[in-house]
């Protein structure tokens, strides 16, 4: 009885947060659930004609608009072929399984903060028989030296670009190319977990195709940066992608129809992809304004990670309990209509330290640095600082 009551309370809190965020007049970003279901469906139907023929035949088992999306992704990444997947988890399971069959080595080297290690319930080992090893535990991607000196062989090196749980961090271009070369010298293939690869262009100063060309295979997401409903793509050599299609079927990923998700992905490529550099540039201004506000507000300790964002997302760390910070953030949203921060978390951090993720998208472009500082000062006042 008590457990049910607690679950109901948590659900009520979730619904309350969502209602408050939806009602905010100013946000740094609008999340996928910030718009009601009917509004999203209406917008998708109204905009579909920009990327496909609304009078055309819906897809069946991956043809039609899904096939067009695959061709578009392969073209953007400069790779021979691409395969659509309903989830990134499945796409990467299949990618690393295919490479294990081809290399004869089922060991995958990746960061312990990588998404498969942190957020997929050990799926690599439980589902695909893969074994993972960690060349480094530092909150950054492995260096060339760490790859070259690692004590045991591995068949594939998986690099998450950017490394989300470490703060959406990226290496410098020269560092990345050296790390890839070190893996090649060990006869390992290289796979990019590029769920957020789309926004790496600014940091690397290279086009998408040049970045993707470093890897043997690349996974990209359609909802994390592009605002799609769901879905992912795996791109690489044509013969490997043909093998991936077979495994996609075995994993249950060959869906009968997927046109809503595919259309939303094409719209994301058309609309959001060209805007991402402006989001990255403005995220740097937002981060600088937050830093100024925290200094001016007398915060005893804080950290923006990284101090200058590598993408349009970054972490903010403060020395207070998550409940205190979240209550202040939600109160600010509800009473002023301004949402600066959303959820705060303590897991993975030191006692008394909490972290939130900040994203800047088209909604955030409306904020001036002065407005960010004002919102941060109001937030600190509600926390009890300054």
TrEMBL record:
<comment type="similarity">
    <text>Belongs to the threonine aldolase family.</text>
</comment>
<protein>
    <submittedName>
        <fullName>Threonine aldolase</fullName>
    </submittedName>
</protein>
<dbReference type="GO" id="GO:0008732">
    <property type="term" value="F:L-allo-threonine aldolase activity"/>
</dbReference>
<dbReference type="Pfam" id="PF01212">
    <property type="entry name" value="Beta_elim_lyase"/>
</dbReference>
<dbReference type="InterPro" id="IPR015424">
    <property type="entry name" value="PyrdxlP-dep_Trfase"/>
</dbReference>
<dbReference type="InterPro" id="IPR015421">
    <property type="entry name" value="PyrdxlP-dep_Trfase_major"/>
</dbReference>
<dbReference type="GO" id="GO:0006545">
    <property type="term" value="P:glycine biosynthetic process"/>
</dbReference>
<dbReference type="InterPro" id="IPR001597">
    <property type="entry name" value="ArAA_b-elim_lyase/Thr_aldolase"/>
</dbReference>
<keyword id="KW-0663">Pyridoxal phosphate</keyword>
<dbReference type="GO" id="GO:0006567">
    <property type="term" value="P:L-threonine catabolic process"/>
</dbReference>
<dbReference type="InterPro" id="IPR015422">
    <property type="entry name" value="PyrdxlP-dep_Trfase_small"/>
</dbReference>
<dbReference type="GO" id="GO:0005829">
    <property type="term" value="C:cytosol"/>
</dbReference>
<feature type="domain" description="Aromatic amino acid beta-eliminating lyase/threonine aldolase">
    <location>
        <begin position="62"/>
        <end position="291"/>
    </location>
</feature>
């Amino acid at each position: 009885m008590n457990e049910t009551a607690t679950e109901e309370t948590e659900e009520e809190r979730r619904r309350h947060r969502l209602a408050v965020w939806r009602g905010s007049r100013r946000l740094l970003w609008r999340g996928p659930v910030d718009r009601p279901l009917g509004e999203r469906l209406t917008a998708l139907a109204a905009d579909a004609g920009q990327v496909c023929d609304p009078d055309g035949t819906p897809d069946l088992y991956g043809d039609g608009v899904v096939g067009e999306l695959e061709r578009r992704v392969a073209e953007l990444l400069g790779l021979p072929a691409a395969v659509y997947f309903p989830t990134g988890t499945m796409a990467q399971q299949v990618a690393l399984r295919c490479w294990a069959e081809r290399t004869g080595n089922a060991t995958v080297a990746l960061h312990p903060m990588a998404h498969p290690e942190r957020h997929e319930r050990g799926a690599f080992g439980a589902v695909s028989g893969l074994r993972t090893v960690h060349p480094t535990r530092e909150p950054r991607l492995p260096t060339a030296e760490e790859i070259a000196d690692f004590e045991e062989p591995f068949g594939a090196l998986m690099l998450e670009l950017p490394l989300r749980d470490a703060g959406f961090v990226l290496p410098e271009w020269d560092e990345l190319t050296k790390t890839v070369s070190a893996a090649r010298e060990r006869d390992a293939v290289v796979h990019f977990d590029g769920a957020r690869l789309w926004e790496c262009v600014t940091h690397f100063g290279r086009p998408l195709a040049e970045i993707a060309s470093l890897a043997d295979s690349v996974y990209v997401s359609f909802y994390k940066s592009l605002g799609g409903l769901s879905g992912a793509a795996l791109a690489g050599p044509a013969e490997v992608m043909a093998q991936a299609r077979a495994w996609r079927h075995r994993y249950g990923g060959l869906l009968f129809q997927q046109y809503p998700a595919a259309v939303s992905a094409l719209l994301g490529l058309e609309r959001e992809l060209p805007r991402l550099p402006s989001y990255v540039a403005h995220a740097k201004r937002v981060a600088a304004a937050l830093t100024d506000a925290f200094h001016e507000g007398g915060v005893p300790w804080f950290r923006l990670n990284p101090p200058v964002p590598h993408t349009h997302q970054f972490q903010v760390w403060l020395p207070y309990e998550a409940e205190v910070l979240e209550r202040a953030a939600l109160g600010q949203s509800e009473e002023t209509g301004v949402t600066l921060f959303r959820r705060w978390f303590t897991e993975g951090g030191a006692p008394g330290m909490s972290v939130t993720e900040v994203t800047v998208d088209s909604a955030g472009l409306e904020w001036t640095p002065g407005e960010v500082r004002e919102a941060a000062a109001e937030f600190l006042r509600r926390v009890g600082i300054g």
